[in-house]
Write a structure and sequence with these properties.
- By secondary structure, this protein is mainly alpha-helical.
- It folds into two domains: about 100 residues, Arc Repressor Mutant, subunit A (Orthogonal Bundle), CATH 1.10.10.10; about 100 residues, no CATH class.
- It is built from nine helices and three strands.
- Helix 2 packs across helix 4, helix 3 packs across helix 4 and helix 7 crosses helix 8.
- The longest helix has 29 residues.
- The protein starts with a helix and ends with a helix.
């Protein structure tokens, strides 16, 4: 196992030359390698809490760094909620990565994250009163008015007519179904102005 210790130590440094892992990630890897040497096995179980405690890092940092090591193929782990992760140190990971493959994978993760954020934004908009959304959030999201607010504002417009009520309700629903975008597929950033301009 001592030979493995030396080989894996040299390998991680060579890998780090081509793609800097960062001090925290390296610290975690060498901590895991230390455990591996002590128990004479490349596979073992340890919790994020224990790693965090031993290295004086936050659990969030530990999770991010572990995921980075896994993404590069340096370790693998299987984590179940409430149970310490089973970690395996991989000895034959590639020293030179296919950058295009890595970038494509990263872009997929970013796209998925953006989609999740959009879902979260819609949840916030429909379930959180306007008064509870802070100024920073207001700048990041567009406010979707309720149907009642939509109609109330429409009734305040000079050109409003009661015969337009059904059309106004339909427009509100259409904009919501379209992700709060107009017929040109552009985001509606000022719904009052858009509604006013759409009335005859």
């Amino acid at each position: 196992m001592e030979n493995y210790n030396l080989e894996l130590s040299e390998r991680i440094w060579k890998f780090n030359e081509s793609r800097a892992l960062g001090l925290s990630t390296l610290s975690i890897y060498f901590f895991l390698l230390k455990i591996s040497v002590e128990i004479d096995s490349l596979k073992f179980t340890i919790s994020d809490t224990e790693v965090s405690k031993q290295l004086k890092m936050t659990r969030k940092t530990v999770k991010v760094c572990k995921e980075k090591l896994r993404r590069f193929g340096i370790i693998s782990y299987r984590s179940i909620s409430g149970i310490p992760a089973e970690i395996t140190l991989i000895s034959d990971y590639p020293l030179i990565l296919d950058n295009q493959h890595f970038d494509d994978d990263l872009n997929k993760k970013r796209k998925a994250k953006k989609q999740n954020e959009e879902v979260l934004v819609q949840t916030i908009i429909f379930k959180t009163p306007v008064s509870e959304i802070d100024d920073i959030s207001r700048k990041k999201i567009m406010y979707f008015p309720t149907l009642e607010e939509f109609i109330e504002y429409a009734e305040s417009i000079e050109t409003y007519d009661d015969n337009l009520l059904l059309e106004i309700k339909n427009k509100h629903q259409t904009w919501i179904n379209n992700g709060w975008k107009n017929s040109f597929d552009r985001p509606i950033t000022n719904w009052k102005s858009a509604l006013k301009n759409s009335l005859p």
